[in-house]
User: What shape does this take?
Amino acid sequence: MIKNKKSLIKKLRLSAVFWPALCAALLYCSWPLGLILNPITTHHSLASQLEAPHQPYNWLFIAMDVGCGLLLAGIGIFQLRRGSHTRFLRMCIASYIIFGLLAAVAALVPLDCDPSTMVCGTVLHNPSFLLHGFCSIASVLFLLLDIILLAKWARSHQVSWVMQAVFAIILLGWAVFGLGSLLEIVDHIKNNILQDYFITLCSISIIMTVASVEYYKYLQRHKKSLSSF
Assistant: This one.
């Protein structure tokens, strides 16, 4: 039985999926590397433009997103194959598997134009633009769904005030991104700060969802909640 916060954190660290999940999160958060390898695009275009055919080191950024997606899919499949799971748990795991696969597809179908400069032409005549846009948007929606499901579970079962606080902060971060995006549209703000912030937020969300699923599985095995810490 895990009796305190330190032993719980140690158990999560020693979990077979923790380090792969951390690697997946770091691979997804590639924009700091863009500051070094392609600073002009990083400062003035969408993060997706780092993967465009004409950009330097585009293969590296594509590989990082694909690697993130494959790692998450592998983590999810590994978790699903380890014992029986509730419908809720299968839904949470499936959500970040789908997120990872969609993120990988979006990377493999990179944009060959920059939407922020309005030079992509007619959308209906650009299938790669449609596929990339759909996969990019759908992927983060599945990640958000995962965060909401696990946050609701943590609060309703009162499993840990620390976990509830972290989920509250992450959800607040998603809300800030939504409000910030609306402000950018209304005021025609052109910068990449909000985009970099959101990518970082998604990376944190990746780690939190995988760790929470492991925590949920622990509670299921022991059939009772841990005392709050």
